[in-house]
Amino acid sequence: MAVCGLKKGVAKRMSDMTGYNARERFYTIGASVAPYPFMVVAVWTPFTSIKPALYGGMALYLIGLGFFVATLYILAATPLDQPFSAGPYKVSRNPLYVAATILFFSICVVSLNVILFAITVILVVLQHLMILAEERVCRLRYGRTYEEYMKKVPRYLLV
């Protein structure tokens, strides 16, 4: 029962837009909806027969999946009143979005589909705008603690 409560708390925390202005809500909803067209196109897109793209994309997919699972573990394990800062959050302030982008990009590579690449670009732009909103709210919510975290950990992986 406690596990279910924790999952509900995490889901609620992840979808909380308290403190967002109308534009930030628009970007956040857009970033949340953008994966659906990608999935529809991806389901009907065959893999490429070009071996380097196929194997490279598959390797990239496994890396993204590992990063995604590690991030989900930290999301579930972090107390609801604390900011995320362990595991993948030590190398990226936004590991869930980094992992998702790697996964989307890997599917683009294994399929070599231009439409999927275009959707991924739109998704990444919307995610970035959403991340800026999240960071603004986290600075207000966690203050100096979050400011120090921002100085130590890059927004994505290298920047």
Secondary-structure topology with pairs:
Elements: H1 2-15, H2 22-33, H3 35-43, H4 51-77, H5 95-111, H6 114-142, H7 144-152
Helix pairs in contact: 2-6, 3-6, 4-5, 5-6, 6-7
How does this model look, in words?
- By secondary structure, this protein is mainly α.
- Helix content is 74%, strand content 0%.
- It is built from 7 helices and no strands.
- The chain is globular and about 50 Å long.
- The N and C termini lie far apart (40 Å).
- Residues 1-6 have low confidence and may be disordered.
Which band does the percent of strand residues land in? under 5%
Run of helices and strands: HHHHHHH
- Please provide the count of β strands: 0
Q: Kindly state the mean pLDDT as a whole number?
A: 90
Shape descriptor:
globular
Given helix and strand content, the structural type is mainly alpha
pLDDT < 50 runs, ≥5 residues:
1-6
Spatial gap, N to C terminus: 40 Å
C-alpha-based Rg, rounded: 17 Å
Number of helices: 7
Main sheet summary: none
